[in-house]
Amino acid sequence: MKSKKGKLVTFEGPEGSGKTTQIRYAEKLLKKKGYKVLVLREPGKTPTADAIRKILLHKNEPLSSEVETFLFLAARRDLVEKKILPALKAGKVVLCDRFQDSTWVYQGFAGKLSQKLIETMGDFATDGLTPNLTLLLDVPVSTGLKRAGGTDRMERKPKAFHEKVRKGFLQLAKKNKKRFRVISTTQSIENVQEEIKKVINYAFR
Ligand code: TMP
C-alpha cells in the first residue's frame, strides 16, 4: 500500500449524472495503483446521517431551503468527524459522492439562499475542509431526470430547479478551475471512463 497523505476527491453533478457508477470505477483504478480507498456518499454513511437522509429524501413534507441546509450540514458534519477526517489522517483516498458544492448549488444557487451564507455555514460544518479534486459529471437535465427515475423528494422538484442546479455546477466549476474537472456523461460509458482515468492518473501521478 502506498503511504501518501490522504486526499479527498468529490464527485458532483445533477440528478442522474452517473456518479455512483463512476465512483466505483475510480475506486478500482486507485486500488490498482496501491491506494487505500474509502467510498462515501452524502447525505449518509453514519447512523445519524442515514437518518437525516431519510428525512431529506423520503419524506413527502415540503422543506424550505433553510431547513434543508441545516439538515444537509448536520449530516456532513457527522460524516466529516466520524469518517472523513480519520480516513484522511490514516492516509486514505476518500471518494465522496457529493459534498459542500451540492449545498452551494442546490440550496444556494437553485434554492435561492445567500451563497455567501452557505459558504460560511459550510466552512463551519467542515472546519474548512476543501476537496483536493472535484469531478463534475455533467448531463442535460431531461436525460438525467429520466435516468434517475424521479422518485425522491429532490428529484420531484420542478424541471426549472434542476436546470438551475446544472447551471450552478457549471458556474462553480468555471470559478474553481484548479479543483474541478468537468466530464460529460452523455458519451459512451467507455469514453467517460477513459476521461476519468486520465484525470485520476494525472492527479495521482
Ligand atoms: P443522490 O444520492 O442521488 O446524489 O441524492 C442526494 C440528493 O440530495 C440530490 O438530489 C442532491 C441533494 N443534495 C442537496 O440538495 N444538498 C446537499 O448538500 C447534498 C449533499 C445533496
Q: If you had to describe this structure to a student in words, what would you say it looks like?
A:
It is a single chain. α3 packs antiparallel against α4 (about 100-110) and α4 (about 100-110) crosses α7. The protein has a single domain, classed as P-loop containing nucleotide triphosphate hydrolases (Rossmann fold, 3-Layer(aba) Sandwich), CATH 3.40.50. The longest helix has 25 residues, at about 65-90. Helix content is about 55%, strand content about 15%. By secondary structure, it is an alpha/beta fold. It binds thymidine-5'-phosphate. Thymidine-5'-phosphate (TMP) binds next to α4.
Keywords:
alpha/beta, single chain, Rossmann fold, five-stranded parallel sheet, 205 residues, binds thymidine-5'-phosphate, 8 helices
Task: Estimate percent helicity.
Answer: 55-70%
- Which structural class fits the helix and strand makeup? alpha/beta
Write the CATH homologous superfamily.
P-loop containing nucleotide triphosphate hydrolases
User: How many beta-strand runs?
Assistant: 5
CATH class: Alpha Beta
First and last CA, distance: 15 Å
Please summarize what this structure is.
By secondary structure, the protein is of the alpha/beta class. The protein is 55% helix and 13% strand.
